[in-house]
Amino acid sequence: MSDGTSAIRVLDPNTLAEKRRFTVHDGNTSVDQLNELEFVDGEIFANVWQTDRIARISPQSGRVVGWIDLKDLLSPIYRLEAGAVLNGIAYDSNRKRLFVTGKLWPSVFEIRLVTKQLK
User: Fold this and answer.
1) What pLDDT is attached to residue 14?
2) How crowded is residue 108: how many other Cβ atoms within 10 Å of its Cβ?
3) Buried-most residue among 14, 17, 24, 29 (CB within 10 A)?
4) Cα distance between residue 119 and residue 116, in whole Å
5) Edge-to-edge strand order for the sheet containing 97-102?
6) DSSP code at position 70
7) How many Å apart are CA 24 and CA 4, to the nearest integer?
8) What is the dihedral of CA 77, 73, 28, 34, to 10 degrees?
9) What pLDDT shows up at residue 119?
10) What is the b/e burial string over 96-105, where b = at least 16 CB atoms within 10 angstroms of the residue's CB?
């Protein structure tokens, strides 16, 4: 569970009692504004509110193990309203498909992650 801070709480699925919590960090910097969590193949994916980025988080350590940059996914024509922001992550674990959308977005996008080649 997230509350918009850098903390993620792990809850017991039956009682909803907090089992533990951890702080999400990228290096020495905590990452807050976390929202819309999704568990994907052993990692937590979390939208960073008001950005076009999704943090890939280790649930064991809270360390950001990578970033998903979606800044060019939605055409600028749909970004005319300030509230048109990335805000939805869904994962189909059976077919290994990842979907994203946002507030006021006209579509849900199925995306495939590729490793960015460093220059």
Assistant:
1) 96
2) 11
3) 24
4) 9
5) 86-92, 97-102, 109-111
6) -
7) 11
8) 70
9) 67
10) eebebbbeeb
Q: In whole angstroms, give the CA distance from residue 16 to residue 58.
A: 21
pLDDT, averaged per 10 consecutive residues of the chain (119 residues), comes to 95 96 97 95 95 96 96 83 88 96 92 81
Beta strands in the chain (DSSP E): 7-11, 18-23, 25-26, 29-30, 34-40, 43-48, 53-57, 64-69, 86-92, 97-102, 109-111
- The residue type at 25: H
Question: From residue 98, how far is each of 12, 36, 45, 115 by CA, in Å?
Answer: 25, 14, 11, 15
Q: Which two tokens stand for residue 2?
A: 């997230």
